[in-house]
Design brief:
331 residues; six-stranded parallel β-sheet; 11 strands
């Protein structure tokens, strides 16, 4: 039986969530921050770009047709990171994650053999994190999508230990996908907020998980890093050097590069040479096909991008779907 082609980086837009937060205190301030971070020129492009993709983001029929055109059999569908809303208070955050989890599950239930879903966790309220994960699993979702940080908290914060422990215990998938970058207005032109900001956030978040010992304490955590893990995998030698010469960087048990083989990475790096390097440093069994469906910073041809890396046949098929299939429920 041929292994299905699995795209682990695909999004759904949830109008129910947008409606929930639209008129709430804090939403306008968050939108203003987003404007400052991205700059007016980028927002002027992003609005029409998203509008043109609404059918593929919301309609299962349009999604399946696009998947068929790409040669993709299965998607792991996560909410648009615009639904994180880290400004939300505890009451709002609980309503938000429950609504997002239920709406994502309902979307995927329309094509249960082809769509598997992830929910959301409000990282700004660590005490809600395990409840949010449990709720997602109760809906039949495979895990949750998380951002690279929350206001005032990094992923190394001890407050998240119960989340890592429960995710490891249940085998839930954690999909690390940043939204926004704390470099703020320094990246407010030329879409640097995304092109530089996202891989920076990935690298910082993963570094917190590695150096803090989270991956020592939770070696069986199923963690997928979007955007190929950002800058970290191709610059991991600098982390290894720091670990070898700096006592203050020796808080993890082994050299940092060794932890890359505990993390899964999507293939969305936009450069075949970088993809080959990612496969080399993380291992061919730790890279998964990812497209960022259907946004413009993704790829319309994820299999073509994978072929361009000129991997061995075995590695190509592992990344194409073999590795991800092992993370999906068995029929």
């Amino acid at each position: 039986m041929t292994t299905p082609t699995v795209d682990v980086h695909a999004h759904v837009l949830l109008p129910e969530v947008d409606a929930l937060v639209a008129d709430l205190p804090g939403h306008a301030e968050a939108k203003a921050l987003d404007t400052r971070r991205n700059g007016p020129a980028s927002l002027a492009v992003s609005g029409p770009m998203v509008a043109a993709r609404i059918p593929r983001l919301t309609d299962v029929g349009a999604r399946l047709a696009a998947m068929d055109a790409q040669g993709v059999d299965i998607q792991l569908v996560s909410p648009s990171p615009s639904h994180y809303h880290p400004w939300a208070d505890e009451e709002t955050a609980e309503k938000l994650y429950r609504l997002a989890n239920e709406a994502t599950a309902a979307h995927c239930a329309q094509a249960p053999k082809q769509l598997y879903g992830l929910g959301l966790v409000p990282l700004q309220h660590p005490l809600q994190a395990v409840r949010a994960l449990e709720h997602a699993l109760e809906q039949g979702l495979l895990g949750v999508e998380i951002s690279s940080h929350a206001p005032g908290r990094e992923l190394s914060d001890p407050a998240y230990e119960p989340l890592w422990a429960r995710a490891e215990e249940t085998g839930a998938i954690l999909f690390l996908h940043p939204f926004g970058c704390t470099l703020d207005e320094r990246l407010d032109r030329w879409y640097l907020s995304n092109t530089v900001g996202q891989p920076t956030e990935n690298a910082v978040a993963l570094s917190h998980l590695i150096f803090s010992g989270v991956l020592d304490r939770h070696p069986e955590l199923t963690l997928i890093a979007a955007h190929g893990g950002g800058y970290l995998p191709t610059h991991i030698g600098r982390s290894d050097h720091a670990w070898s010469v700096r006592p203050d960087a020796q808080s993890c048990a082994r050299e940092p590069s060794s932890y890359l083989r505990q993390v899964y990475f999507d293939s969305l790096v936009h450069d075949p040479h970088v993809l080959r390097e990612l496969v080399r440093v993380a291992g061919p069994d730790r890279v998964l096909l990812g497209s960022d469906f259907p946004f413009d910073m993704g790829t319309e041809d994820p299999l073509g991008a994978l072929r361009a890396a000129r991997l061995s046949d075995a590695d190509f098929h592992a990344v194409r779907g073999g590795n991800a299939a092992a993370l999906l429920p068995k029929e």
